[in-house]
Amino acid sequence: MKIIQNISAELLKADIKPSWQRIKIYEFLLNNNIHPTVDTVYKKLAKEIPTLSKTTVYNTLKLFEEHHLIKNVNIEENEIRYDAQNHIHGHFKCTQCGKIFDFKYNYKDLKYKGLDDFILNQTDVMIKGICKSCKEKNKSN
Amino acid sequence: MKIIQNISAELLKADIKPSWQRIKIYEFLLNNNIHPTVDTVYKKLAKEIPTLSKTTVYNTLKLFEEHHLIKNVNIEENEIRYDAQNHIHGHFKCTQCGKIFDFKYNYKDLKYKGLDDFILNQTDVMIKGICKSCKEKNKSN
DNA sequence: TTTCATAAATGTAATGATTACAAAATTAAA
DNA sequence: TTTAATTTTGTAATCATTACATTTATGAAA
Q1: What are phi and psi of A125, to 5 degrees?
Q2: A100-105 and B112-113: which strand pairing?
Q3: For residue range B49-75, what is the model confidence (pLDDT) as tens digits?
Q4: Which nucleotides of D are covered by protein (CB under 7 A)?
Q5: May I ask the CATH class of domain B4-83?
Q6: Which candidate, A3, A66, A82, A137, has a CA 20 to 30 Å from the CA of B118?
Q7: Burial annotation A72-106 (CB, 10 A radius, 16+ → b, else e)
Q8: Per DSSP, what are the bridge partners of residue B71?
Q9: In this predicted structure, what is the pLDDT of residue B4?
């Protein structure tokens, strides 16, 4: 749980003017590592900020992304999800229950062929499969 | 360049009845490793098959994917792309020119933490950055 | 060949996420 | 306070995808 002042300071450090909406949106992302969609963020915060517009959520999240405060995680086909975690991790999507799991991997050991003289800014490892819980559920049937 | 008979046989092997549309769509994917969108496939083939419907392209590509003949590559935020290559490779997206590059990586060395007892079906490595050509273009400015 | 049943393809309409845009509200500066 | 700039808001437009009903093609049986 980060307090508002810290959040405000982090926004400023990223060259983002800390408006109330921006603070609340960033706070939500920091306190909810659930790779939320725009709609999820909007619905949760609309309770606290009744005047909140979905366009604001879209604009704000895009702004955060451009300032490298959060990452755009391309897990689902049809919607953007965001992730505010700053440690390197991969995403596992269970194709049965739809849940998304974080996992760690040895990213330092990764070697690439074909990307000489390319600038690598963001690496994502995405795995699809069946999660433990679904796997066990399937066994019992 | 695969010939029609081979393509037909491959479809049958995947339990897919080889209709003319399906053959042409699969042929296009095999001969064009460009991670095409549905729209790209549709537009190219509409010239050869004037009656082709975009819905058919959607349905067919989904069918191919369900039968593990092709893969759904989640490179862009807003559209599905497909890949018929069967060797393991990653995708690099240049955030400047938008081009997508394939690259090889040492996938056998990848180790995961947090996915014990999970079934891993498909692993994707996606990198965003600046390609060599754009990097050099930027230098000269 | 004709008939019938099934599968595949087609076209249109609906959905839903995202974006464009202009107006309203807020903030900062003068 | 006045003014300008920034941020937020709401509505309308866009565009990829899907739903669905109709038409067409295919294949087997008579």
Answers
A1: -115, 125
A2: antiparallel
A3: 999 999 999 999 999 999 999 999 887
A4: 6-11, 16-20, 26
A5: mainly alpha
A6: A82
A7: bbbbeeeebbbbbeeeebbbbbbeeeeebbebebe
A8: B83
A9: 67
